[in-house]
Amino acid sequence: MHITLDWNQIDTVLLDMDGTLLDLHFDNFFWLEHMPLAYAQKHNISHAEAKSRLVNLFDLHRGTLNWYCLDYWTDALGMPIAELKKDITHKIGFRPHVQDFLTALRAAGKRTVIVTNAHRDSVDLKLQHTNLGQYVDRIISSHDYREPKESQVFWQHLLREEPFDKQRTLLLDDSLTVLESARLFGIAQLSSGLVKSQLWLRTTTPSTAPSWL
Ligand SMILES: [Mg+2]
Q: How far apart are the CA of 105 and the centre of ligand 1, in A?
């Protein structure tokens, strides 16, 4: 069952960063093109072979904190991941209408907290190349807690450190696995993203089957 969001019922908005507020062009290009090219040069193999090897390696860690951890990949691949990211920072950008949306949330007095699985180095790089930090009250990386958003431990830790009313909190996140994790924890209002220019949001309640699919 989809219902139209009632902003009067929401005090806190938890916001995913990559794929929700910022577009994925930078991340996709980095992991699928730029980094494999550097890997190919390092190992003197073709770009295609590098992509194939890395995709297999990435799949082993999907959904874990390692998957998001620049330190892990720097060590595992023997490559300066954070440095390589700086080559393509011109690709970092907002998704459409996001600044207007965040401005409206602030004007409405909502508390806005970014909750991201991105490593702090990635967060910092993105804040340097956008003014995203000016639009929100707080930014939390799951690396701070050593648990990804897919884990219930992340939400327990978040609630202790950034108290919120589960019934009056909205999570916007483009990861269905993360939305499911938040639903399990009891966050009442969930959405997979921002919709069109007015950003009317669709929500589900935790008592219903996941219906953001
Ligand atoms: Mg995301």
A: 19
